[in-house]
Amino acid sequence: MSDIGEQRKSYPPIRIAVEAQCMVPPRSGVGRYAWELTQALEKLPEVQVSYFQGSRWLDRWVDSVPSPIRPQVGRLHRRIKEMIPGGRHLRHALDTVGFIVKARTHHTQLVFAPNYIGPKTSLPTVITVHDISHVRHPEAHPPKRVAFLNQALPRAMRNARKIFVVSQFTAVEVASLFPDVAHKIQVIYPGVDRRFFDPQSAEVEVELRHLLQNDSRRYFLFLATLEPRKNLQRVLAAYEGLPDAIRNAHPLVLAGQIGWRESSFAEPLSRLVAKKEAFCLGYVPDAVLPALYRHALALIYPALYEGFGLPPVEAMAAGCPVLVSNVTAMPEVCGDAALYCDPLNTESITEAMLNLADDENMRKRLSILGSSQAGLYQWDRAANMFLEAVKEIMDQP
């Protein structure tokens, strides 16, 4: 046994290069997924992880952009892609050239693209497909994003050795629309960081109070990129449908970057903000998120289409009751630990929010069940499943 152990220790680690553009702060859901998974992979002795953004490579990921300018950097990057004709294709082509040059010097053995599309390369590549909402709900995305994914994703899936998906729901969706790649699909559920289960430090609590402008009321929390796919327009209408007393007692707190087509919800949001019934926090630092969930009355997350839904799982880990839509991956991911609504029915969302505000016993029950449900999702388990899949690929001729 000792000889086997020595052989394992001396076996050279698999050198994995991670396409890391989505990890640049401020991170959205895909960026959080990539960051958490790669942090777990770095702990495994069998792999050596490096990160690349075109020609820029890092042996360890460092959030090098200063916090005060991270949101502006993210918005600038998105605007460049959208404003320049063919910007997405141009950026992808330039990144690919930079990758080819540096991959040789880093002796890369495998490429991981956690955000759908990786560089064109002859190296073995694995990708993660989080959902296919650009196919099911193209109206909820910028047209240029839809056009790019419609062209680039089928090719990326054909070229990939393995297609990781984040739920059984997404596995069925991808296989039904792209049956020629069904044999490559593997479900690896994301995890939830252990810090969401733990109490926060006094410093974090102070930072949260500052973000909330020292408002001590328990709040309905909406945490997502503010864009049509997250159903914000109906959430605002549902909240306005609550009785005055509940709105006075429980404001609506929105945390997340402004996404696409904000004009669709700007007017009702401005109205609620003017009455101090809603607060827009913008991007919330990762360190503050557990406390943000813990102090909420409930998380409101009636997304129209979701491949997994990391915020509800994080909220459950923090003991926060969650309200989610009864479609796509949400029932699979949340099980019996969530309250459900019809995301297309504003009255259904309002009724569920009213029940959460009025029924303390329900909130306690969901909090207990949620903590147990969230415990099913572990990043170290995801990393080990990823590693086993990669080993199989590297053993293939």
Per DSSP, what share of the residues sits in E-state strands of 2 or more residues? Answer: 5-15%
Biggest sheet record: 7 strands, mixed
Helix/sheet category:
alpha/beta
Radius of gyration from the alpha-carbon trace, in angstroms: 21 Å
Which percent bin holds the helix content? 40-55%
* N→C terminal distance: 29 Å
Question: What count of helical segments does DSSP give?
Answer: 17
The gross shape turns out to be globular
Q: What is the β-strand count?
A: 13
| Mean residue pLDDT | 88
Low confidence ranges: 1-9, 65-74
Order of helices and strands: HEHEEHHEEHHEHEHEHHEHEHEHEHEHHH
Strand order of the largest sheet: 3-2-1-4-5-6-7
Please give a structural write-up.
The chain is of the alpha/beta class and 397 residues long. Helices cover 47% and strands 15% of the residues. It contains 17 helices and 13 strands. The protein has helices at residues 2-10, 29-42, 70-83, 87-105, 133-136, 143-159, 168-177, 202-211, 232-240, 244-249, 263-274, 289-294, 310-317, 330-334, 346-358, 360-374, 379-395; strands at residues 14-19, 47-53, 56-58, 110-113, 125-129, 162-165, 185-187, 219-223, 252-255, 278-282, 296-301, 322-325, 339-341. The strands form two sheets. Strands 3-2-1-4-5-6-7 form a seven-stranded mixed beta sheet, with helices on both faces. Helix 9 (232-240) runs parallel beside helix 11 (263-274), helix 9 crosses helix 15 and helix 13 (310-317) crosses helix 16 (360-374). The two termini are 29 Å apart.
